[in-house]
Amino acid sequence: MKKIIALMLAFTISLCFVGCGANDSEDSDITGPSNIAVGIQSTRNCASIAIDSALEAELEDALLENGSQVQIYEIDGDSYRINQDEIKSDYKSGLSKNNRQTQCDNIINRINKIISSDAVPVTPEVDILGGLTTLTNAVNSMSYSNSNAKQILLVSNMLSTSGVINFAESSIYIDLEDYANFVSKEMPDMAGISVTFFIADADDDQQEIPNSDKERLKSFYQAIINGAGGSVKFAEQTSSNGEVDKSSWPAVTTVDIRNSTYSGEVLDVTLEESVLFKSDSTEWIDEQAAEDTLSSLVDAINDSDDEVVVAGSTATTSSSEERHIEFSLQRANKVKDMLIDLGADSSKLIAIGIGKSYERYRVPDSGQYANETNHSKNRCVFITSASSDKGKYFLDVAKKFSVNGI
Questions:
Q1: CA–CA separation, 384 vs 381, rounded Å?
Q2: CA–CA distance from 247 to each of 243, 328, 353 (Å)?
Q3: pLDDT tens across 171-205, in order?
């Protein structure tokens, strides 16, 4: 299928410029050419990009140099090259600075058109490590002019859902340091490659990533790229204002995002143990701080037409399943009682214990993932609308245990 698409997109762009000289000739500036691979995550879960922003500026810096070559790839579940042409900056000696800028602009316009029309996903999901591997192999195999510089420009929302990095299964809240050490070993040699990672917004059903989680993911990808021998810098990529019809595009599994505060939209908040409770206890760490945290949810609960699930969760330990359920229910009731004391409508609150007996929305914390960082993420209380997918799932889990009384 990809070969057919590639053939349909194939055309030849050979830009070898022969402009005449001028008094503002600046041959001394024509240095530092690069072999460049551009990766665009154009998928359902990633906002369409405004090309005339950060990416264009980076391309211009490179393409104003003489002897740069560009290849463009779609980053979906199985990345593929979307231009089979040759895109090169090849300026004749003596070309004026103004003419060189004009011809560089022409190249970028060509690239913009290719990305706008041809960067379309074919394979479901998003494999960012697979995409990085493809881009790395591309710049390592390119050889144009006397260029030794290698650049990767990657536009992505960082939410990989397939391949070695699968946040739809493993969660973005696992111990990312250990994960990065493992993943970097799967990468080809990136020595001498500089990566610019443009962070795109989420789209479709994918919830936006909070800034704190973005920073964790940036550190994660930096560790992978550095571990493979490359260097990386990050930039924010502006989203396009135009509407893109993605209805026929392949599916991408949503990645669970935890919010520690109410966003003003869907009631879906996750409160970790460190915010509320002393370790292995139902005693508040700081009762006033707990009140401040929970009071922000009272109006949202009372204004909602929906019931609200308060679900206690525990880390995986050797204790019995029943003990996990009972303890997590005690914590859930503690949170429920404080919410009622703060003015929440008691008839809308459903306290349940789900312990360690659920898989979705949980951070893996057993087997190879058994460490304190991952355990701590599961010592939490979820507060979510009962009619949401998450709320329905937690209630279904809770019904298996009579102690929950539902």
A1: 10
A2: 12, 41, 38
A3: 999 999 889 998 998 899 999 999 999 999 999 99
